[in-house]
Design goal:
5-stranded mixed barrel, BirA Bifunctional Protein, domain 2, single chain, RNA-binding, alpha+beta, OB fold (Dihydrolipoamide Acetyltransferase, E2P), disordered N terminus, 25% strand
Amino acid sequence: MPDVPAPDAPDADPNALDGDPAATSDDGDPTPPIPYRYEPDATAAVLHAEHDGLEPGTETGRTVTVAGRLMLRRVQGKLAFGTLDDGSGRIQLFAPKASTPDFERFTHLAIGDWIGVTGEVMTTRRGELSVRVDGWTLLAPTRRQFPDKWHGLTDTDVRYRQRYVDLWVTEEARRVLLLRSRLVSLTRRWLEDRDFVEVETPLLHPIPGGALAKPFTTHHNALDTDLYLRIAPELYLKRLVVGGFPRVFEIGRVFRNEGLSTRHNPEFTMLELYQAYADYGDIMRLTEELVAHLARELCGTTVLTYGGRELDLTPPWRRARLADLVEEQTGLALSLDQPIEELRAAAAEFEVTVPDDAGPGKILLEIYEKTTEGEMWGPVFVIDYPQEVSPLARPHRERAGEVERFEAIVAGRELANAFSELTDPVDQRARFEDQARQKDAGDEEAMVVDDDYVRALEYGLPPTGGLGIGIDRLVMLLADQSSIRDVLLFPTLRPEAPGS
RNA sequence: GCGCCUCUAGCUCAACGGCAGAGCAAUGGACUCUUAAUCCACAGGUUGGGGGUUCGAAUCCCCCGGGGCGCACCA
């Protein structure tokens, strides 16, 4: 960006026009130039907050400058009204011909034009808080017609592709995306208050790891090497615990090369945190407290409505073992110890297809996901997963074949995934090698051996609890949205066809 | 990837085998307290694209493209 010239002397009008005076409109009338800068000194939200409840016909004597988009216009002969939206809210413009410079041009502004207005704050005879137009400036003409002022945009394709229009005309879109912003901000503050340090780790990974997922592949020319967009920050964050940061977190984008749906976008935002000296029980308490805090701050209560159904996020959340939940749902008591033929038979009964080489843990998890996960309204902490499907989690302190892992299920969906982290480098290498065998056998989502991560564990990772929360899904819950695309500013879509 | 639905004016929608229409927006006009202002006038289209059936296709059939929902996969 070029250097910005110093502002004019303090007594100069900051909003004086400055530009090409020779510009003309199509019909040959001279058109005032578009200024290079503008200084609004009030917003619609602040004006409403400070002047609400004035008697009709009040003149406050206060002159303000506001700027935004003209959303509505009501011209009535020698008097015009406008509705200006400045992003904070809406404020009425009151424009009598007598006080409004260039009145004829003002009444011909297009809906969607950006304008700046200076004038006295007043109320009309009907009591509507307004800014009288004593001066105004066109800041950007719109060259495209705005959507219907009443119906707005309903075509979801257009809403997602042209979010710059949607945000003006769809109040709900703005509400949800502001809620998202506040949620991320509140999360940061809450974690920082608990001595967590925010870090940024690589998005380009030489070895994809930290989750079971298909990565995007890219190539670095100078290094002449393939790199992967990260599927999870997990392994880097635990390296940082080894490196002497006992409480770290990262809120960032991860990428998974899988299908799209109302619950899946190829890139999404994950919160991951790691806390030294903690186990998964500590992380459960942290999770329910964080989510309850966000619900209270953003929704005013921990008892929400999601999709028309009550959702009570008040801690403590239920804790239940995975196998017990499957039994609750299906009436079938399954265990990792029973003969694998019985597990296979159970899978077949529920029409769950499992790979031929799947062990009991994989089969049990598949049955759980097919029969139980989506049925649980929650919130519930599903605890104690099979080790076979949890290559980064520490073995259960009491139950052989299981690990200390939980997923938080809310509204039938996974909101969080966490465990007591595996700290033993020997065990970790063995788990990686087992994963690598599965990958060689054709499992595209299996992990590969990350030698450097094992080396880091060899230097010593203390007992550590880790957590991953899908921020998009959390926003969906708190904003009562059923599609992930509605909580993303620019969801991934097929590229627009040329010329369409 | 598979199945179902959908695409008509800038926007929101009608017309469902027989002349492509309305509201809002736009354009011109009337109107000094409106609130989606109102009233009068006027303009606006390769009915997503291509092919077929038919005397006649927005409408029925096929192919292609975009989107939505469901399934599959995942978080």
